[in-house]
Amino acid sequence: MVVELISVGTELLLGNIVNTNAQFLAEKCASLGLSMYHQVTVGDNRERLAEDINTALQRADIIILTGGLGPTEDDITKEVCAEVMGFKLVEDPHTRERIETYFKDGIYPVITENNWKQALIPEGCKVLDNHNGTAPGLILEKAGKAAILLPGPINELKPLFLDAVSPYLQELQPEVIRSQMIKICGHGESQVADQIKDLIAAQTNPTIAPYAKTAEVHLRVTARAADDETAKSLIKPVVKEIKNRFGDDIYTTKEEETLEMAVVRLLKKYELTVTTAESCTGGLIAGRLVNVSGASEVFREGFVTYSNKAKRKILDVSKGTLKKYGAVSEQTAKEMATGGVFATDADVCIAVTGIAGPSTEGDKPVGLVYIACYMKDKVKVEEYHFKGNRDKIREQAVVKSLDLLRRSILTNYRG
User: Fold this and answer.
1) What is the DSSP annotation of 298-365?
2) For residue 216, which of 246, 190, 183, 194 has the smallest C-alpha distance?
3) C-beta separation of 46 from 76 below 8 A
């Protein structure tokens, strides 16, 4: 089946916001085995939107429209789509009641008249309850075609798609599509591709699709079959072979598990506590960890010791070390990790110090980063020379720090 994506919003055309919806939906549709040949971005203009909907309905079985479902006058997606497909709008009592409840329990209890616009739906369509906002998702079906309307905010769109739209799309497929994600740290995309080039060359069903992330590579193994069990049986030997090749470089095979979630899972498993000591990353490592639900069970404390004075005062880095080797050095990273453990009585401390740029520090280049992990009275220090701008260098440092922490736990505590 062919699906087409229409992203609605003048703010997208002006570059005011990044279209993360398109990235998410394209990836999910691909994992469901749907073919996507076109993506369209259109502003809040009735004529142009109607033209794009008409075109999409001619060349696709399903169109997914995002954005333009709000209460203001420029939110026109629902109205235009209903008109193009020949539906009249009627008030949905269920949606009206949900809007009332949303405002009653929210921080803005007054319901303005324009909010009731969101209770109007194309007559006979499927209504998808939005548990994170007031605009419901909608599915319009006519003459063998379907239009799926989703709210623009990603924190509303994503759960709505996963909970309601994905099962709907799966039911439309004549065969089962099953995917298994493999997430790898420690190799670049070209290295991973080289190690599995024979598997890719021989692939038919299942297929292997690599995705490059910051300091990570994700592999999606996808199989088509008549039933779920057959699809799983096709995937299993391929995943097993990839695991044999990459070993501990694989941190998860779960779609929704991030690197920080994998780290917190290991910390919980071995009943360990962790402290972070950060300089150039400025608290980003701690932020990634505390984003994980349940991190309070394992996260002891996070230090941002950006200045030399803070490194001395909080982490007990010696003045002599800083003078002789500098703030960006293996020796300073080692003392930061040690000081973090002793300052908080944690089991583990991950520390990072580096030059994110754009200016250098003496003869030390931009991108030079030292990451240290203290565990079981030993400190492991790694030196990196990252490329890119300031943000990219810091982001790479965060990923490598989390991965060093993960590998250190596996090395020291796995039986």
Assistant:
1) TEEEEEE--SHHHHHHHH---HHHHHHH-SSSHHHHHHHHHHHHHHHT-SEEEEEEE--SSS-BTTBP
2) 183
3) yes
pLDDT for the residue numbered 415: 64
Q: Is 121:89 a contact under the CB 8 Å cutoff?
A: yes
For 96-119, the pLDDT digits (tens) are 999 998 888 777 778 888 989 999
Outline where 118-188 has alpha helix (H). Answer: 154-160, 166-172
Helix, strand, coil percent values for the chain (each to nearest 5): 45, 25, 30
pTM: predicted TM-score of the whole model, two decimal places: 0.79
Bridge partners (DSSP) of residue 224 are: 177
pLDDT tens column, 188-212: 899 999 999 999 999 999 999 998 9
Are the C-beta atoms of 337 and 274 separated by less than 8 Å? no
- List the beta bridge partners of residue 348: 274, 375
* 3 state SS of 117: helix
Q: Using omega within 30 degrees of 0 as the cis cutoff, is the peptide bond preceding 71 cis? A: no
Average pLDDT rounded to a whole number, residues 405-411: 97
